[in-house]
Design brief:
Length: about 210
């Protein structure tokens, strides 16, 4: 991948137009277009501003070496999956506690206490997981110009957390309602995809 292709990819990931990027770097839109089509390359004094704006290193921009960034993304995904798995296991143990203490030992109060304690810990883990993941999602579309994407994701995340708590407390089905957070992850990705498609369509119309 050339420097121009990397710049094009980074700009589309940020959901900004060539003109918006040009304004940030104090150059013309035609200059950005030439960079992205490899007709010319950024001057040395523009390398650092470009890297700071996109949140990458000069090595990533010039060589495409993004192992650190990719490792961070993989770590986020791994932690998200691990926390969900732990929460699910806690819900399962919570249900088993009620069955065991109520049916085997005739101690329903003890079983209910364990159920509520484990459910509370699992819920806290999922809420933290959802908040942290939503912040990572917002960072992917966080620019000075692009605030709408962040606002939409923030509203959707708040709505899903509210729905999760209401449904969970109303049904006490904590061992099932955690699925709402999986749906939230999918919805966040769809929102970002829609913004990307809108930006691509905008660029095609401008061209």
């Amino acid at each position: 991948m050339t420097i121009g292709e990397r710049l094009l990819k980074l700009r589309r990931e940020k959901n900004i137009s060539q003109e918006e990027l040009a304004n940030e770097l104090d150059v013309s839109r035609q200059t950005i277009s030439k960079w992205e089509t490899d007709q010319s390359q950024p001057d040395f004094d523009k390398i650092i501003p470009l890297c700071e704006y996109f949140g990458i290193t000069s090595d990533e921009l010039l060589t495409g070496n993004s192992n650190i960034k990719e490792a961070k993304q993989e770590n986020v995904k791994s932690n998200f999956a691990r926390n969900v798995a732990i929460a699910v296991m806690m819900y399962i143990f919570a249900v088993l506690a009620i069955i065991l203490f109520a049916a085997q030992f005739d101690l329903p109060i003890v079983g209910l206490s364990i159920f509520l304690a484990l459910s509370a810990m699992a819920t806290g883990l999922l809420v933290y997981n959802g908040i942290y993941y939503s912040r990572e999602s917002e960072e992917k579309c966080s620019t000075k110009k692009d605030t709408l994407c962040k606002q939409v994701i923030g509203i959707v995340d708040t709505l899903f957390v509210t729905i999760y708590l209401i449904v969970s407390f109303a049904t006490m089905a904590w061992h099932i309602t955690w699925i709402i957070f999986l749906i939230l992850g999918v919805v966040d990705e769809i929102i970002k995809l829609l913004f990307n498609l809108k930006e691509v369509e905008k660029e095609e119309n401008n061209d």
